[in-house]
């Protein structure tokens, strides 16, 4: 009901504290509105459970009693559900004495924007409490309700934002030959990148198989798949003026640094070729992005009996192609990430995203069982 954006989430923080301050835990504040709640069981090691907190700049279209109260902001990625599960775990831990491990609950802002996970990890909080494993859950619309799923090893790819800026030459639309049409060049560049990438083994096809005229890449191992996608372009000033600029925004995904370098090199090569062909200027930049989410194989093996005992668990064959800054926790401690099915088929980041809150009981049960 109260989705907020990025790092500063005052109402969300206030709500979380209304529960956490009633529990027997030590609170640490960081990363804007981030909260870490430590439950001291007198043990040497600590199990951490992470929830993201931030919403998205999306106008919600749902009509329900818990619809967003903030115009243009929405929990369209399930972070409200993640927080609810983690708060419920805190209440469970608070009611139990003699647990075999200390517990750290991490409520993290800025998952959707700046990568708040990295900032939290760099505070040293995991080392301070001797965190020996980190767990997290993300709601997932394309699994049946209450199904928990994961896999060992590569689970989600590295991601980065890519930006292409094309500089052409303006002219009147009745004399396009006097200019250098950045809009036309943009179309050529996008097609060039898609076509070249499509021939790389493991490339995610840009069109459904058997449609379009861009060839389909040969198959590859699941963790060798790569993706290039452009989702936004701005170009020109008026319908009867040759555009002298274009800005193209997109994303890339890859599971290894080597593959990431190869596809960014591919984009750079296409840019240079288009510059030579059209006599324009093309600037290519990209963010460093999030590392891939790699579930620790040894930890996964250790908890596998717990997973098999769940009412509904599925070990996935293929990794997902979404990205998550949960990956940073795995650089500091053994970590395993899970998805929890909503069964709706409504994609994440949709204006009508919703779920039955009863599924959250399955996530809480997983967390409780992981505590041992």
TrEMBL record:
Indicate yes or no for the key word Metal-binding.
yes
A single Gene Ontology molecular function, please? Answer: metal ion binding
Q: What is written in the cofactor note of this entry?
A: The Mn(2+) ion enhances activity.
The keyword Heme is annotated on this UniProt entry:
no
What Pfam families does the record point to?
M20_dimer, Peptidase_M20
> Which cofactors does this gene product need?
Mn(2+)
> At which positions is Mn(2+) bound?
77, 79, 112, 138, 349
UniProt KW keywords: Manganese, Metal-binding
Q: Where is the Peptidase M20 dimerisation domain?
A: 160-277
Name of the protein: M20/M25/M40 family metallo-hydrolase
Give the taxonomic lineage as stored in the record: Bacteria, Bacillati, Bacillota, Clostridia, Eubacteriales
